[in-house]
Amino acid sequence: xxxSFEGKVAIVTGAGNGLGRxxxxxxxxxxxxxxxxxxxxxxxxxxxxxxxxxxxxxLIEAHGGEAISHGANVANFxxxxxxxxxxxxxxxxVDILINxxxxxxxxxxxxxxxxxxxxxxxxxxxxxxxxxxxVWEIMRAQNYGRIxxxxxxxxxxxxFGQSNYGAAKMAVLGFMNTLVxxxxxxxxxxxxxxxxxxxxxxxxxxxxEIVQAFAPEAVTAGMLTLCDEEAPNRFILCAGAGGYxxxxxxxxxxxxxxxxxxxxxxxxEHWSELTDQTGQAAxxxxxxxxxxxxxxxxxxxxxxxx
Length: 306
Ligand SMILES: NC(=O)c1ccc[n+]([C@@H]2O[C@H](COP(=O)([O-])OP(=O)(O)OC[C@H]3O[C@@H](n4cnc5c(N)ncnc54)[C@H](O)[C@@H]3O)[C@@H](O)[C@H]2O)c1
Prior knowledge:
The chain is of the alpha/beta class.
């Protein structure tokens, strides 16, 4: 089955370099009209330039595609709103949003300033929030929307020196989980990509031959499945160097301890039962956890009445 984006309008943030560039080129090659957003700053978020995003637009046009560039800083809602307004004026809809823009300010937590923490949260979290907010009502009115968050193994599992980045990358998954619930009735699907790619973000972490193996295009191939008409919903796709996997959060069935026995000692006594992964499940919303505990308490009360 061939995936086409013919007739679709896509916004890709941070599309002047690396993964975003690859996503924008691939979406355009498959028919999408693309907004190539990029602030054009350095890896740590300093500076700005429109050169890289304009080059991506030129490449798309040279291959017969349609694209515009916009230099919005995703952390600034007014600039993002201007980008979305220009998109609507030109093409009248927004079908796809790829929240990809990102920066790094790596330091161990002990050496990290709060400004380094806040800036990284601002670009990754508020950047994704601002762009999503600016397209959300448009997607609701269209009864169609596909949004991809860019998360990271650093957020899901941790990485030395990246407490700011890891917190931000996990936050976008929390954002996704509720958007999935609120967007469902308007056919808005939200997924997340956890990439590994040889880009300027990782070039000094990988030897050159590994950088080559981790081509952004390998990640983009997976990303495109998260934003087409048949896209899944709430899926976390991990991709890098031709490897693809999925990640998820599961909760064990757990145990029940009656009120008169609830103490840290009895919780510890039940540790193997509460951590037993047999029958663990991915909960579809937060209230399912409360529901599970109420059912356990009710089952206990019933057993006492017999
Ligand atoms: N490369 C990896 O292995 C890897 C791993 C996990 C997650 N990621 C994530 O993938 C995304 C892309 O990373 P990359 O490796 O392609 O990095 P990159 O540095 O090559 O590209 C990021 C782009 O985002 C742009 N950008 C930064 N701040 C911006 C802002 N405020 N507004 C608009 N544009 C902005 C930059 O100018 C740059 O062009 C990021 O969210 C990153 O955190 C990358």
